[in-house]
Amino acid sequence: MSWNKSLPSNPVVAVAGATGAVGQEFLKVLDDLKFPASRIIPLASAKSAGKKVMCGDTELTVEEMTPESFKGVDIALFSAGANVSRMFREAVVDAGAIMIDNSSAFRMEEDVPLVVPEVNPQDLEWHSGVIANPNCSTIMMVVALAALEKVAPIKRVVTSTYQAASGAGAPAMQELYDQTRAYLAGEPFEPHAFTDQIAFNVIPHIDVFLEDASTKEEWKMIVETRKIMGHPDMKVAANCARVPVLRSHSEYINVEFEAPITPEQAREALSAGESLVVNDDPAHNGYPMPALLAGTNDVYVGRIRKDFSVDYGISFWCVMDQIRKGAALNAVQIAQRLLG
Amino acid sequence: MSWNKSLPSNPVVAVAGATGAVGQEFLKVLDDLKFPASRIIPLASAKSAGKKVMCGDTELTVEEMTPESFKGVDIALFSAGANVSRMFREAVVDAGAIMIDNSSAFRMEEDVPLVVPEVNPQDLEWHSGVIANPNCSTIMMVVALAALEKVAPIKRVVTSTYQAASGAGAPAMQELYDQTRAYLAGEPFEPHAFTDQIAFNVIPHIDVFLEDASTKEEWKMIVETRKIMGHPDMKVAANCARVPVLRSHSEYINVEFEAPITPEQAREALSAGESLVVNDDPAHNGYPMPALLAGTNDVYVGRIRKDFSVDYGISFWCVMDQIRKGAALNAVQIAQRLLG
Fold first, then answer.
1. Is the pTM of this model over 0.90?
2. What ipTM did this prediction achieve?
């Protein structure tokens, strides 16, 4: 089944989870990209109703999200957790709106396209009311892999991540700040947003553990990469860790190819890729770093070099603002493509 | 040529670089391990001469290091940088002392054994006056790989590191503290010990860049692993990064084997390995973390699981106090083995 309604050129946009880290960024990105909305409706739980949020210079009042909230809405951007997305899916679709969902709720469902506009825009053509926004760590990796795949077919990918606090939401970012302050002052602290101390620490655990002792975050990076890139059997190994960084994720990625590829070819392909910026100048200590890339829109790549441990190998480092391209920006870019 | 002098059972020990982060730890470890030194002589540059340092409850006065400092010395523990090691090598060996060098100066020289006592103690038999202590990131990896190799031969290793500030010395640890304080207070700061901001950041660059765009740290992890493990052609890919952590390094390691190995077999082999502690209890969020392991002596391993991207693959996470087992402790353990 595919969607047969057409969108108005000035759609009504609902933002579900408008007071969260990604929700706030949805409002900022809609304004930054001059998204042609006729109206923007910020929605949140009852306890946030009545709060004011800004979209550019416009102050908006947060409304309580109920099944009735979606009447007259054309596009609903969701970032309020998987359970909330599941709870409101029917109401959104029944109201005739398209749900662009940032949670993991529907990503692996067969009739839900999982889209990074630079990688698989063609998958927007067959949605049936719900489009899923991939996991942030996956987005940055596939943007780079899609560019490299134009040079040579990919055989196997091994990645280790350095993920920012923002991936766990706005309270987690605050916890990193507050806990670091407490640590430096020699004061006691209690972890809430994370399983353990995050200040001056690394936690090798993101999302819940699965039966095979991997984490759900690691599993997402494998299955989502396969779905987005259209390679159901692609060999991917992922190791995820949380580092004391605020809002940009980083990843080291080793790619083994089926055919020869030089670092120069890789660099050229990455430079030419959409939403990719290459910063790779070892002679001048030039490489992307998470603290310096907050608020940016692209996937930054550096440390591009030969991996001599396989016949045809390239390894590289990439960094992306987790809240923007990793979440809000990618979702709004999906909405832009829907408008055509 | 091999060394034909025997060591007294209560040797005179010189500590070169006694005021540095590792030098201080040498003194602490000699005391902790009740090393049977008849005398400990702390040495440093002229500007530190006269300073007091503690070895257990004993206060020692730092002496200026000159070629004459090594007369009557049996074992000289060096951690004062590669140039200082090169400068004093002849004086140490001529004085009849054995140099155990923590720098990278001689590690890859053919007549210098590179030793992790748990992995290649047999290489202590053919030294000719100089024994090299490996790079910290290499030590932790080979301690784990040597245990796993007892189950199945290793085909390829891919690692990404999460390295602490301490690897860049005591001033670097202080810089992480001071810069984090300044950052939180909104005050300006200037990086000195690192190429860039380290507070709330990740720097994908440790040691100098080489011609192939890898870093010397990455190169060390490859060539030192091969030398220590006695596999000159072992396939190793290494990606190194500095994280805002004080003194323990972490690594994710993906190992591809030549033959079947289950996570249970890997866990058993790692648990049985010397200087290895397995903390791997996903059900209770049990895994090693760098902030919680400062001052410990072992290599901690967790997140042991199947890597489904190859026929016979295991991936795991490991953490080690970079100053202790990564430097001072390993060197003193070498000295212990020399005493027999």
1. yes
2. 0.95
Three-state SS string over A191-233 comes to: CCCCCCCCCCCCECCCCCECCCCCEHHHHHHHHHHHHHHCCCC
Q: Is B290 exposed, middle or buried (0-12, 13-18, 19+ CB in 10 A)?
A: buried
Identify residue B257 by its one-letter amino acid code.
Answer: F
Whether residue B126 lies within 8 A of chain A, CB to CB, comes out as no
d(CA A332, CA A115): 11
Q: How many residues would you count in chain A?
A: 340
- Beta carbons within 8 Å of A97's beta carbon, 6+ residues apart: A14, A70, A73, A74, A75, A76, A129
Residue type, B178: D
Starting at the edge strand found earlier in the chain, the sheet holding A75-78 runs A63-64, A39-44, A12-16, A75-78, A98-101, A130-132
A240 is known as an active-site residue:
no
- Contacts of A272 by beta carbon, 8 Å cutoff, 6+ apart: A147
Lookup: tokens for A320? 């992306």
Nearest to A305 among B214, B304, B315 (CB): B214
Distance CA A203, CA A162 (A): 10
User: What are the pLDDT digits (tens) for A17-26?
Assistant: 999 989 999 9
Nearest chain A residue to B318 by CA distance is A204
Nearest CA in chain B to A319: B202
Read off the pLDDT of residues A205-235 as tens digits, 9 standing for 90 and up. 999 999 999 999 999 999 999 999 999 999 9
